[in-house]
Amino acid sequence: MAFASIIRRSASTVAPIVTRLARGQRSFGSALFTALNHHVNISREHSVSFPSYYSTAAAKKPSNTESLLRVIEAEIQCARETDDHDRVEEIPKGFPFKIEDNPGEQIVTLTREYEGEMIKVLVQMPGLVTGENNDIGDDDDDNQKANQSSVPLVVTISKKSGLALEFNCVAYPDEIAIDGLSVRHPENSEDQFAYEGPDFHDLDENLRKAFLKYLEIRGIKSSTTNFLHEYMINKDSREYLFWLNNFKKFIEA
């Protein structure tokens, strides 16, 4: 009985203590939650947002690219105003060749048939010369030619058998000069060690004149090459403008 009474007194004494501790824990937990919640609210109010610099920087072109584009556009405008890029040369009456001119290529191809022969002429871009050299004497023919605009030509005359003559020529105003000629055989057309013949200028003068006459009869004459000279100057202007516009498209892409 005494032991039971002691237990009841102990229980009645401990119960209020446990109750106070529980209340204290609830009060502390409530205070802690309130403090944390207040801290979160403060953090939200004072949070810092960082702007996205990378997206705008990536979208903007570098300054050197913009500078290059401005220079290209200025050059395009200058070429349009000063060059004969839109000029069309009228083909002379009786011009014997068919002209194949593809935009973007630096060579114009002429073709024709003559008495069973196939004649093909590759016309290259002109070598333009501006100004005069006062040191050149009138009696020096080679130096005079060096001071003139010219158009390089490669003339190939083929037979049905496959044999071909190839002339390397330079067309000057009112004059055609042959720099070299060779005979091409179909079986060794790719042989880079084939004999090319002697230097044309070392040939006998009568033989040189005969070859020039041979070309003239087939349409390679001054009236033809003078037209080609003007034609290729205009083509050079067109191709330069075409090249500038393609370059601009690449930079802008």
- Give the spatial strand order of the biggest sheet: 1-2-3-4-5-6
The first-to-last residue Cα distance is 102 Å
Order of helical and strand elements: HHHEEEHEEEHH
- Beta-strand portion reads 15-25%
Give the averaged pLDDT, no decimals: 76
Question: Uncertain regions: pLDDT < 50 for 5+ in a row?
Answer: 1-36
The total beta strand count reads: 6
- What proportion of the residues is helical, as a percent range? 40-55%
Would you tell me the structural class of the helices and strands?
alpha+beta
Q: What's the CATH first level of the domain at 98-129 and 149-232?
A: Alpha Beta
Number of helices: 6
CATH architectural label of the domain at 98-129 and 149-232: Roll
Tell me the name of the CATH homologous superfamily of the domain at 98-129 and 149-232. Mitochondrial glycoprotein
Strand count, sense and barrel status of the largest sheet are:
6 strands, antiparallel
Radius of gyration: 46 Å
CATH topology of the domain at 98-129 and 149-232, by name, is Mitochondrial Matrix Protein, Chain A
- What overall form do the CA principal axes indicate? elongated
Organism: Tripterygium wilfordii
Pfam family, one: MAM33
Protein name: Mitochondrial glycoprotein family protein
